[in-house]
Amino acid sequence: MDFEDGRGSGKAWVDKQPTYEEKIYFARLQILSQELSSAMQADSGKFRTPMWEEYYKKNEANYDQATFNRIIVPRTKQFVPPAAREAKARSEDTTTTSSSD
User: Which of 25, 32, 44, 66 has its CA 20 to 30 A from that of 74?
Assistant: First the structure.
């Protein structure tokens, strides 16, 4: 299909086609979405500090102190000496026999 401008210049008027209009519409929506996202990110940094300070003072008891315990999980299986394994097995045997009584 040949799109010409009617003057015989051979220039295509693809900007008048429906697919072109759809692409422009979609591109415009993408740009608007990006601008909205940027504006929301910029506004998110402007929170009202006095509001948060007031909330903290009202609920200060909930924020007294917290303790953080670290649990270290080894990447490889740890070596357990045979003597320790036997001692653990004996202690498990005594707990199972005493609980079955």
Answer: 66
